[in-house]
Design a protein that fits this description.
- 26% of the residues lie in helices and 18% in strands.
- The strands form three sheets. A five-stranded mixed β-sheet has the order 3-2-7-8-9, with no helix packed on it. Strands 1, 4, 10 and 11 form a four-stranded mixed β-sheet that branches.
- The protein is of the alpha/beta class.
- The chain folds into two domains: 56 residues, no CATH class; 211 residues, Sandwich (Protocatechuate 3,4-Dioxygenase, subunit A), CATH 2.60.130.
Length: 300
């Protein structure tokens, strides 16, 4: 029998886990244990604080539903999603358009719409047009690429917040034409607060943070033989463009709705943005995020 203290228990834990057969699982769990133990020692974590942390994580789990993923939201506001996204990009065979976060509001199964369609069913704000071309890194157009888009409405709400979960809105899937072009109509989304009615929102308030995301439109683009692109376009005049609470903004993704002579729907303000798709490496998959429904247990 060996008496363990706050230092030697780390080696004892790692020793017990040494028989892990999966080398990657072993690498991840060994590092997690080392860092978690070091964290507890660094802050001199008390039993009451440890229990508070357990209670918060339990509450985060209970807040998850098939339309809400509170753990992804927690990862986002702690900057962890941005770290994982940046690490994922570093592994790419080549880089194209800058990526961004998928976020906690992505949903599978949006309707495929004809080019030029409006993704917002009922709106009170002026229409704008998003258009451009999807190409490979050499500029060759990619016809029939799938362009998935989703956003808030002009009031700053996603469909799962504004409607019941069976009603999809402010979303649409489009296919690029023979020249790799895409275009659709929408309204400018309003910048919004992350959900503040749960444990993550409470944490953000305790940290004195505003909890706001700048106005943006999500884009998820796929084309055979090319690396899936998860990105978003951010409107540069939003007051929170420099302080996104989930750290998703990159300078190359900042846009402006304006008069463009080559807009495919004349008379409307528009955003032109061309996306470059890098070639995919073998087994090059992964999104920093997922449809919340994919985390829920299957019905028995």
């Amino acid at each position: 029998m060996i008496d363990l203290d706050e230092n030697t228990v780390t080696d004892a834990t790692l020793s017990q886990m040494a028989t892990t057969s999966d080398p990657r699982l072993k690498e991840i769990m060994d590092a997690a244990v080392r860092h978690l133990h070091a964290f507890a020692r660094e802050v001199n974590l008390t039993p009451a604080e440890w229990l508070t942390g357990i209670a918060v994580l339990t509450e985060v789990g209970k807040a998850c539903t098939d339309i809400r993923q509170e753990f992804i939201l927690l990862s986002d506001v702690l900057g962890l999603s941005a770290v994982v996204n940046a690490l994922h990009d570093k592994k790419a065979k080549e880089l194209g358009t800058q990526s961004s976060l998928l976020g906690p509001f992505f949903r599978e199964g949006a309707a495929e719409l004809p080019l030029g369609a409006n993704i917002v069913a009922n709106h009170t704000a002026p229409e704008i047009v998003l258009y451009g071309q999807v190409t490979d890194n050499d500029g060759a157009p990619l016809p029939n690429a799938l362009v998935q888009v989703w956003q808030t409405d002009e009031h700053g709400l996603y469909d799962v917040q504004a409607h019941d979960d069976a009603h999809m809105d402010m979303r649409g899937n489009f296919r690029t034409d023979a020249n790799g072009n895409y275009h659709f109509r929408t309204v400018r989304p309003l910048g919004y607060s992350i959900p503040m009615d749960g444990p993550v929102g409470r944490l953000v308030r305790m940290q004195g943070r505003h909890g706001m995301r700048p106005s943006h439109i999500h884009m998820l683009i796929t084309a055979p033989g090319h690396r899936e692109l998860v990105s978003a376009l951010y409107f540069g005049d939003d007051a929170n463009i420099a302080s996104d609470t989930v750290f998703g903004v990159s300078a190359s993704l900042v846009v402006e709705a304006k008069d463009n002579a080559d807009c495919p729907i004349p008379g409307l303000k528009s955003v032109r943005y061309d996306f470059r798709m890098p070639k995919a490496a073998d087994n090059d998959t992964g999104r920093v995020g997922a449809d919340p429904a994919s985390f829920m247990p299957a019905a028995e």
